[in-house]
Structures are given as C-alpha cells and as structure tokens.
Amino acid sequence: AVGLILWQCAELLRNYYSASVSVTVQFQKLPFPAVTICNINPYKYSSMKDYLSELDKETKKALETFYGFSEGKSKVRRSVDEWNSTGSDFFKQIPLVKFEDFSKTATDLRSGQKRKIEGSVFHKDSSIVNSGDSNDIIGFQLCDANNSSECALYTFSSGVNAIQEWYKLHYMNIMAQIPLETKEKLSYSADDLLLTCFFDGLSCDKRHFTRFHHPLHGNCYTFNSGENGTILSTSTGGSEYGLQVVLYIGEADYNPFLVTSTGAKIIVHDQNEYPFIEDIGTEIETAAATSIGMHFTRSRKLSKPYSDCTETGADIPVENLYNKSYSLQICLHSCFQKAMVDSCGCAQYAQPLPAGAEYCNYKKNPNWMYCYYKLHEKFVKEQLGCQQICKDACSFKEWALTTSIAQWPSAVSEDWMLRVLSWDKGQKINKKLNKTDLANLMVFYKDLNERFISENPANTLVILLSNFGGQLGLWMSCSVVCVIEIIEVFFIDSLSIVMRHQWQKAKKWWNDRKRDRSAKPPQAGDLERQGHDNPVCIDEDLPTFNTALRLPLPQDNPLPRTPPPNYSTLRLETAFTEQLPDTLEVGQH
Q1: Cα separation values, 38 from 122, 214, 257, 397, 541, Å
Q2: Could you say which of 234, 300, 518, 559 has the lowest number of CB atoms within 10 Å?
C-alpha cells in the first residue's frame, strides 16, 4: 500500500504542470481586422520593360531553343552557332542544361555540348515522378564562384517551372539594384487598383487604405491598418456590413514570365501583425465575386513550464526585422535572413534588410545564388537551427475564412456594369473594360460570436494537497491530522529529544568549567570541615541526612564564626532612681 501511495504521489507531481482548455463564446461588437490587398502582378509590365528587356529577350531565346517556337515566327529551333553569337550574360551566370536518361550527362543549351555534371543534384519537383521522356528534365547549374568544382544542379520535371525559377532568380537580382522610391512608382497606385469601396453600408475611398510595399508583390494596400490610431469595428454580421471593393486587375499589363495567373491576393490579419502575402495569402480570381466570411477566435496559451511558447519574443535570440509583433513566421524569416547575411555576405531580396546589410546582386556578390540555394536547403531540412530556436507565440488572433465564388458580372448585367465602371475609371464609353480585368471582393463577419480559447492550470497547490489527502484516505484510511501526527512523532519529537540531550550536555560542560574556575586548592584542615561551614559542600541543594553522615569531622580549631547576638537589650532597666525599701530588707536578710 505504501508503494502504491508513493507511485500515486509521483504521478500527481509529474502531472502537476498540466493545463486544461476552456472555450468561451460571447456575442459582442467586434473590431474589424486589417485587410491587405495586392495585385498578383507586382509591377506594370509596360513600366518595367526598360529594366527587364535583356532578361525577357534571353528568356524568349531559351524558349525558342528548348521548344522551337517564338512570338510571331514559325516553330524552328535556333542553332547552337546562332545562340553563341548573341553572347548571353544571363546564361553565363546560370547555365541551363537538359538531362539525358536520368544520368549526370547533360547538354548545355548555350554551347550545345554534352558534358558530365559534377556535384549534387536537387530535384525541385521531388513529389512529382516524371514518367515522360528524360529529355524533358531541364535544370540549371549553380557553382561556387570561389571554387568551380563545387557545383549543384537543380532539375525540374516541367520546363515551365525551370524557366520560371530561372527567370525569378535574375528578376530578383535586377530588382535588388532599383531604389525603393522608383519601385513604388513602377507598381500600382491606389487609384489604379481600387474602383469602388463600401464598408458597413457606407462609401469609402483610397484614404481608408494604407500603402505597403512588398518586395515580391509590389504596392499592396491595407484597409483599416490602424496607423491613424483608429480601428474600425462592426456591430452587424453579414455581407452587406463588411468590406466590399471592386478591383482593377489590368491583365494586359502583366509580366508573362513572372506570373502565370491573374487576379489579386488578400490576407486578413491583426493590425499589429505583418501580412505574409506569399505564405498565407488568399487568391481572388477575376470575372467573379468572391465572398469571404470570417469567424474570429482569440487564443491564449500558458507559457513555461506548461508549454514552450513565448509571450513577446524577447527571450528569442533572433532580431525581429519586420517591426511588428512577434510571430513564428517573423522569427523564421528573420533567422534565415540573418544566416544569409552571415554566410553569403548579403541579404535575400524577398525579406527585410538587417542593419548595415544590402541586397544581393551579381556585381557585388557573384556567389550569392549558390550560397542562397545551399543555405535554403539546410533551412528546409531543419539543419540551420531556426526551427529549434523559434517558438510559437502564446497569444494570437485568428480569423477563420470561408470562401465562396460566384460569376460576376452576370451575362444580363455585364454590358451596362462595364460601361459604368469604365466611366468611373475615366475611360471612353467605346473602350469599356473587360470583365477579366475586374474582381469583386467582399469580406465580412458571418456572425459576431467571439471565441476565446484559453489554457488554465489544471492543478494548484490546494488541488495537489487534496489529491494527496485523497490517496492517503483511500489506501491507508489516513487523514491530514494523521499525517501531521506522524510528522510530529518522527520529526518534531525526535528533534526535541536530540536537542534536549544536547542541551544537558552543554549545561554540564558549562557547570564543570565554572567549578574549575572558582574552586581553590584544598588545604589540610579543609577536609575535616563539615556542615554548612565546610566549603567543599558547594552543592546548591541543602544536605540530606545521608549526605550529612558522609561529611568529614570538624577540625580542632574551628574557623571564626559570627558572634552571638548581644542580649544586653533584654536586660530590665529600673524606672526608679532609688531602690525600694522592701528590696533592701530582703537584701539585708
């Protein structure tokens, strides 16, 4: 029974730091979240042609060489000599190759020569098994600029993916050298993106949106960002009382090699959170009305020792590069960017710049692409240490989204709607907008029920003592009073006995020491003294009959004693001056 009780007590202590989850639902007026909207195409292609002309030219040449087609020409492959005559710097930096028979023998599409590829091979579409001809496997080779023998080959099952990845690498290299002010002008303005706006049944305009520049998505616009200190709220659920906007997408001005889909991206987030469009953004298609219903949930987890989460991120040894409240994504991206700067000497274009760093480009950092891919490989395999350092936030807000799509505008209303929107856009009536240039978006609360999920300690000191007492009562019929008595007997009483014994020993030692200091050497006559006159009897207690018999005999010459009292005071003094006669007669007789 004792062993079972000890085992039960150990289980209670082991499960002491456990938490229980409670869910609270309350109906109230809810703050409206921030809604960030971006065009999928980051920059107007007509504005970027001067910067991307050489890259676009080489991309078209690659398509012609790969697949034998070009714009406005017959599908004829270019010869190797014609390719070499152009002298492409882009293919010098990252040569495109084509595999044969799944081996490391590849054809360099720039030189037309077959060669053995050395180094590691990384298949970027590893989840896709290529069942077609091996000649369809296309990739590019990255080599260490400081050591040409250190190379890595990245292959793709689809030529579309290979061309896009190759294009994006050069695109980021070009954009990293353009100043931010210039890029903001090259992207879409609020007037370009927003056609109509309604919130909570009232009209709104571009003044309710805040511009936010994203490296990969250009100018994005956030509704209800809270920068002016005011956060909008809504007291009614339903699509008519949320945010309704009509977006102008402008498909004709899209970059054909950078993006292959049309529409916009949105993300619903808290005002203090950074909008990671590329990670969790929701795509909105054109020629459709997209309705996004929201459910609001707040979550709160217990920090250490209950869970491995962080309150504010102050205990995480990673600098927050986003100037927003801490989140796991912010920590991971900041950690990778810091490792990029430390390992490669420059920063990756898609993430914010650390202090004192600059974005990578060929001119200053010829080795950055090889370094970036090797570092990203370690990050994905969790060998960089970022996943071990970064933790989840203890408190966070979440908006669960439900998306529905309907055709918009309808066939019967398409004509007049496009004419009116064209007029609002400032165009002529005979050049009305195309419905593939427009997207209708509605973001609203489906209900005003706020769900609060919180963790609470499952055990407290009172509960622990109650469970402990319950186990004792169940297995030993013992109560708390019994436990106190056991503690008293085995600990308090034992301690008092030991302390009393030690006190007696100390008292005896002190008395012996005091006696040794006050006692004189004995003389010959002292041994015969007795009674209370004998100085040997120093016992504080009075002598008994038995001890008196054992006292030595008194000496011949006793010590001087206190003289007896003077009894002269007891004599009678006569009150008469003369003797009485009768006394005289008596005396005479």
Answers
A1: 32, 9, 18, 22, 106
A2: 518
